[in-house]
Amino acid sequence: MTRPADPSAAPRRVLFVADEIVTAGAGTESQLLRLIAGLSGSRFEPHLAVFRQSDFVASGGVPCPVHHLDIARIATPVSLPRLVGLARLVRRLDAAVSHTWFNDAAIAAPAFCRLAGARVVGSRRDMGFWYTGPILKALCVGNAFVDVIVTNSDAVRANVHRREGFPLERIAVIGNGHALGRFSAAPAPGLRERLGIPVDDAIIGMVANLNARKRHADLVSAVARVRGNGWPAHVILVGSGPEHTALTEQAASLGVAEAVHIVEGVTDAVPLVKHFDVAVLCSESEGFSNALLEYAFCQRPIVCTNVGGNPELIRHDVSGLLLDVGNVAGLASALTSLLADTDRARALGSAAEQTARAGFSAEAMAAAHLALYDRLLAHPRAAVEARRTS
Questions:
Q1: 204 and 269 together in one domain
Q2: 199-236: per-residue pLDDT in tens?
Q3: What domain range includes position 378?
Q4: What is the model's pTM?
Q5: Is the four-CA dihedral 64, 67, 73, 79 of positive or negative sign?
Q6: How many domains does the chain have?
Q7: How many CB atoms lie within 10 A of CB 267?
C-alpha cells in the first residue's frame, strides 16, 4: 500500500520536459499548462524545460520557472552536450520526477533524466500518426528508462502497448481536464454579423487545426449537401493550418463559399462553440479530443467519427452520434436530423455535458497526476500500479 504523502514536507520538484509551447490554445499544450497550474502550491513544485524557445514562453505564459535547452533537432551532434545539460539540470533541481511531453522529448530525454536520478514519466496523447520505423526504434530505446507512460484514453493506452511494446501494467490512463469556469463565458458577441450569417440560419462548427488528418473537407462536402437539401446552414471552422487554401477552394467549387467561414487566431474557442447548433469532429485519428470536451461542456449536440478515444466520451445516440471516417453522406444525414429535431439535439448535448462533468475537470486531472507521482516515488522499482482516472 502507498503511504500518504506528508503534507508538512517540503515540496518535491517535477521537471516537465517538452519540445516547445507555441500557444496556450492547442490541445496538448493547454493540458500541460493546466497540469502545471494545478500542481502549483501542491506537494510538488513544477518546473519546465523546453527544447526550443517560443514567443509564448518568452512572454511569460508558463506559470512556473522555465529552463531553455536550445535543442533545435535531436538528431544532431550539438544536441548531445545539451542533453547532458538536461541531466545537470535534473541534478541541480534535485527533481524527483521528470515528465516528458511531445515527440522529441519522449525520444531523447528519458535516458538523461533517469541517469540523473529522476523517476521518468512519459506522455502519449494521440494514436501515433507520427510513428515511423526509425521513431519506433528510438522510442523503444528511450522507453527502457521510462517508469510509466500516461495516456489520455484507453484507446491510446492500447495503441502504445501494441506499437511500442510498453507493458500495459505501466501505462496509466488520466483523462484530459478543463477549468470548468471557462464554460460560463458568454457567446462571442456580434459573431453572426461579423461573418454575415443570417439570424435564422443554422451554424455547424468544428474546432481543429486545419490539417488533412482532421478531414475538414468531409464537413464542407456534407454542409454542401445539407444546403442542397434546403437547409440554410453555415459552417464555422475554428483553427489554422496548411489546409486553409484547399478548403476555401473546395467551398467555392461546391458553390458554398458564402457559407464556409474559417476563423483563425483563436486562443479560447468556447465563446464560438456556444454559437454552434451542431458541433462536429470528423477526423481520422484522435487520442482524446479536447474539442469534444469543449463541445460537451457547452452542451452542444455532437457528431464525431468513431476513432481513438472519441467513443470513450460519446455513446452513439445517447450523448452524440458516431460515424465512420469519410462517411460524407452519413454526416450530412446526421446534421440534417439534428437540425430538424431540436429536442433530440438538446438531449444529446445535455447527456454529453453530464459525462464531461463526471470526471474531466482540471482539478481531477491534476489530482490524478499527484497520486501517480506519489505511487511512483513510493515504489522501489519501476513498475507502478496503472489505474484509470478520467
A1: yes
A2: 999 999 999 999 999 999 999 999 999 999 999 999 99
A3: 12-177+361-389
A4: 0.86
A5: negative
A6: 2
A7: 9
